[in-house]
Amino acid sequence: MSGRTAAVQARADSVRNRRLLLRAATEAFAECGVDVSMHTIAQRAGVAKGTVFRHFPTKDDLLAAIMMQLLDRLFETADRLLRADDAGRALKDFMGHGIGLLAADRAFCDVIGKPSLQHADVREAIDRLCDTVEDLTARAREQGAVRGDITGTDIVLLLGGIHQTARPLLDREPQAWERFLEIAFDGLRARGRPALPHPPPAQLRMADPSGVSAPTKT
Amino acid sequence: MSGRTAAVQARADSVRNRRLLLRAATEAFAECGVDVSMHTIAQRAGVAKGTVFRHFPTKDDLLAAIMMQLLDRLFETADRLLRADDAGRALKDFMGHGIGLLAADRAFCDVIGKPSLQHADVREAIDRLCDTVEDLTARAREQGAVRGDITGTDIVLLLGGIHQTARPLLDREPQAWERFLEIAFDGLRARGRPALPHPPPAQLRMADPSGVSAPTKT
DNA sequence: CGAGAAGATGACCGGGGGGTCATGTTGTGC
DNA sequence: GCACAACATGACCCCCCGGTCATCTTCTCG
After folding, report:
1. Long-range CB contact pairs, A175-180, < 8 A, 24+
2. Confidence of residue A117 (pLDDT cuts 50, 70, 90)
3. What values do phi and psi take at A2, rounded to 5?
4. How far is CA A32 from CA A24, A61, A85, A110, B27, in A?
5. Is residue A38 located within the same domain as residue A73?
6. How far is residue B91's CA from residue B140's CA, in Å, rounded to a whole number?
7. A173, B113: Cβ pair inside 8 Å?
8. Deepest in the core among A30, A50, A118, B140, taking most CB within 10 A?
9. CA/C1' separation B37–C18 (Å)
10. Is A5 helix (H, G, I), strand (E, B) or coil?
11. Confidence (pTM)
12. What is the CATH number of the domain that holds B33?
């Protein structure tokens, strides 16, 4: 380890291409969703297809690298809002943030939507995020901002649902989700209403329980 | 036209295969969504791929034929509920019906989700359905069952959204959507709340305004 | 500047999609 | 029962996907 630069020095054009690639992939995934082709991404980055696979062995690796950025940013937001005074406001702000991300990135919707075929990193990041949302929700519940039988999993699920509600309007009215977030949040308050007809959903766990991440020493 | 049977008599095995095909396609689309392959559908029907294309020139034709069945049934339900006394209850029942259909048929979700690349029949059927939902909603609004600034388009959009909310739980808890329908409906009531932050969405029109269906004589 | 290694390239592969068509098969009217 | 039209079949076409690799280019270090 020779101080600043690592032992193996990356070539200048390599790091340049990697940057171009990440930028192009971020944009392409956001616009087109996970089904955008590697060829398209390569074109938008101005490199050949082989170069993409040199930097990211599989499409999943590339997708995971980009999703991790999004998830990390969202996690930071959630973690910061955990320190807010008004827990109800914080929860609603977080939901707005999450829905905004979903509206701006089709690939993010796709990844959140189907838990299959994803990198372990991504799955764990989602789980961490869910944990933080659970805390956010618990605080809102204690402060009476939402009814007592609402869980963090409800909130996580509602993120995708509210975005989906406003999705057909995305082109013409990009802010329409605010309307449906308000409706949903009014439903979450709903003081004096009878108990909800279905029990609270079990917590979503993306990382499979086979002990991939947490070595339980068995 | 020679009474019961048409001038050109269809062969017995042909109508048999057509029936098998429609059954298989209905099931396959419901289970796998619109991306299920024509080969798969042919296999499940017990016929060769060419036979599928003999009965339905393109995949879109087959999909449209099956979606029309669903839409017609849903339209009948909506039309019947229009005659109910309790308009709020009727609206909620209709939403439950629609969400149940979405939960049971992946292709239905896909078709409703993306308005592009669809048959004109399907688009018109969806528009007709939207009109009826508008009526259902107007009655509920007049009876005070939902707040005054809720439109039929809100309801249509919420159908997809509520289903999407419960979708990750579909395998383990197929009825979970009831919970989120209750939350959303509480939000739709929400007496004494401030006005919603975003104006009511414009009515969704699937049939393009180029005058394909309604000859506006221009 | 020269040598060598790291990187970039795009033709190529196997798989799977929707759709076609020459050929073989079968139901039907006379 | 015969002849013919309607029908069924599956090999085939073209396209696009993710991924590979022999070949060529370019950066870097001495």
Report:
1. A175/B198, A176/B198, A176/B201, A177/A99, A177/A100, A177/A103, A177/B198, A178/A96, A178/B197, A178/B198, A179/B154, A179/B196, A179/B197, A179/B198, A179/B199, A179/B200, A179/B201, A180/B154, A180/B157, A180/B158, A180/B161
2. low
3. -100, 65
4. 12, 17, 38, 10, 29
5. no
6. 7
7. no
8. B140
9. 9
10. strand
11. 0.91
12. 1.10.10.60
Q: pLDDT tens, B63-78? A: 999 999 999 999 999 9
Pick out residues 16-35 of chain B having their CB under 7 A from any atom of nucleic acid strand D: 17
Could you tell me the pLDDT band of residue B206, with boundaries at 50, 70 and 90? confident
Q: Are A44 and A137 in the same domain?
A: no
Show which positions of strand D are touched by protein (CB under 7 A): 6-12, 16-22, 26-29
Structure token digits, residue B111: 């078709």
Q: Is the dihedral of CA A75, A79, A80, A81 positive or negative?
A: positive
Structure confidence by residue, pLDDT tens digits, A141-194: 999 999 999 999 999 999 999 999 999 999 999 999 999 999 999 999 988 888
| pLDDT of amino acid B19 | 97
- Give CA–CA dist A45/A146, Å, rounded: 46
**Domain total for chain A?**
2
Structure tokens, B55:
């009965």
